[in-house]
Amino acid sequence: MKKLVISILVLFALLSMQTQAQDTIMVIADPHVLPQTEIAKETNFANYMAKQRKMVDLSEPIWKALMDTALKYKPSLVLIPGDLTRDGEPAAHDTVSAALERLQQAGIRTLVIPGNHDLPETVDWMNLYPGTFENAVKDPNSFSYAVEPLPGVTVIGIDGSNGNAGTGVLKPGTLQFVLAQADSAVAKGHMIIAMSHWQILEHFDKKSTLESSCRFKNADALRDSLMAHGVHLVLTGHFHVNSISTWHDATLLTDSIVEISTGSPITFPCPYRWLTISEDRSTIGVTTEYISSLDTISDLYSYSREWMSEHTYNLIPSLAPRMWNKVDEYKSKIVNDYGTIVKAMCLFFGDLNAEINNALPSTDSARVDLVQRHIGKAVVDLYLFHSEANENERPALADSLTQAVYDGMQNMMIEVVTPSEVLSCMADLLLPMAQLMAEGPVQSLAEDITQRSAVNENRTDDLRPTLVINAPLHQDLNDPKIISDRRAADKFLQDGRLYIRHDDRIFNTYGQQVQ
What angle do CA 464, 468, 469 make, to 5 degrees? Predict the structure, then answer.
């Protein structure tokens, strides 16, 4: 009898220590739902779809497949970081809200945050998605909130919908609200999961030169503030590509923030994610899955890839002006660096800047045509490659796609300079400029390298990693010197930026001494 009592007491003690369980979170980003009934009302829908890389026509059946998956596997939590609807149509919000209510009734908590497609003035966000705000602390200035949906976990929704159609902007007072909620969660010893539509970290080198609207305005300052207040994990969407990026403070390398950006299920290859949180709330396992078929499409992977291939060309007219803006920036560099050489080689004593202006295409349509002919296919192929993620697992293909972009840029440059006797004379000097314009983002993307720098360069598995939250970059934290350095460091915020005071010197998060 005594042994039985002891066994029961030991078992009870073990069970009481197990206050938190391993939990699973389903992440769905950018579903852009538009009901079939609304599609039937749009007389120009075919013309609209011709200009889309998003399969909006399949958004409702794909959404239903995701909801069926959630009901089948019953995750602990469903998180949706924005763009729930095509363009904020009330009927679309009603469709999404009704589905999430069914999840709630099945015991599956759902949390959402608005994206740039979700908030026309007619939408009453809080009443449409009451499950998000149940037992939540709400920001009086925006749709930001903090809630504890799981034991030992605080989710902080960061609403950036004060911005324009592309860039996320926080409303006055919202950052202070978010940081106060983070401080409260840290005091409780919680894992913090921040969720926003717009990205906070860069996901490949110089990404903003290709797509400037994906991140928050003043994203670096927001990143530093979140890190300083104990936020080490952010879930985002918006760019429609699976990517994971990590940023470390560059002085002691013992503080970090990880951003898991999830692709859209209506864009190739139709992904969604599972996150598995460890019992001690220190690690997250990531598994990426895909909607592989619908009732009307047996092979959604192949179908969506073909759709993307055909329709990504529609992005080129918007990308081309950005590329030519970079060309315009390089004009002054060419004149300053090569003007004297050109005069010596070509006996040209005129206005080199005017010569370059005359050679460049003068209209947007001519510039777009030039880009489409020379690098259109290469851009499409590289985008498909990037959409599949983990580019570094296919190095031969990465090299060939990168070279195709470089070759196309050079051929484009040759066509531009050939009519000019002066510029064709200096073609050998100009051609390296074509590669220089492309190599930052293109090479980083193809190699799957994020934050190309001495400290923050990383190649994280984008599809199936196990992430240690706030993992130090130093591997051996038993080193007495590292322990001493950590104790000697003092982190503080000034004008929204994080600084580290160490050995009477002050560094920014890039590791640069500022004082």
Answer: 115
313, burial (CB in 10 Å: exposed 0-12, middle 13-18, buried 19+): middle
User: Token pair of 346, please?
Assistant: 């070509």
Q: What is the DSSP letter of 304?
A: H
Q: What are the b/e assignments for 188-203, b being 16+ CB within 10 Å?
A: eebbbbbbbbbbbbbb
Q: Measured between alpha carbons, how far apart are the two ends of the chain, in Å?
A: 71
pLDDT at 417: 79
What kind and span of H or E run contains 24? strand 23-27
pTM for this model (two decimals): 0.85
| Contacts of residue 406, Cβ cutoff 8 Å, sequence gap at least 6 | 434, 435, 438, 439, 442
Beta-bridge partner residues of 199: 215
Enumerate residues 6+ apart whose C-beta is below 8 A from 440. 205, 206, 209, 452
Which 3-state string (H, E, C) describes 353-395? HHHHHHHCCCCHHHHHHHHHHHHHHHHHHHHHHHHHCCHHHCH
Angle between helices 364-388 and 300-311 (to 10 degrees): 160
- How many CB atoms sit inside 10 A of residue 62's CB? 25
Instruction: Report the DSSP beta bridge partners of residue 108.
Output: none
How far, CA to CA in Å, does 131 sit from each of 53, 82, 103?
31, 15, 10
Identify whether the C-beta of residue 240 lies closer than 8 Å to the C-beta of residue 214.
Answer: no
- 161-171 pLDDT per residue, tens: 876 556 889 99
- Determine the Cα–Cα distance for residues 26 and 324; give it in Å rounded to an integer: 41
Q: Count other Cβ atoms within 10 Å, centred on residue 316.
A: 17
Distance CA(24)–CA(286), nearest Å, equals 10
Domains of the chain by start residue, with CATH: 16-311 (3.60.21.10), 314-447 (no CATH), 474-508 (no CATH)
Residue 505: per-residue pLDDT: 67
Whole-number pLDDT of residue 11: 41
How far apart CA 430 and CA 439 sit, in angstroms, is 15
CB-based contacts of 55, cutoff 8 Å, min separation 6: 62, 266, 267, 304, 307
Mean pLDDT by 10 residues, the chain (515 residues): 45 43 94 97 93 94 98 98 94 96 97 90 83 95 96 96 74 93 91 96 72 80 88 95 86 77 98 94 94 97 94 78 70 64 56 73 86 90 93 91 88 82 67 64 81 72 88 50 47 62 62 66
Q: Can you tell me the distance from the alpha carbon of 193 to that of 133, in angstroms, rounded to the nearest whole number?
A: 16
Give 44-88 pLDDT, tens digit per residue: 999 999 888 899 999 999 999 999 999 999 999 999 999 999 999
Which tokens is 249 given? 């403070």
How far is it, in rounded angstroms, from Cα 215 to Cα 81? 14
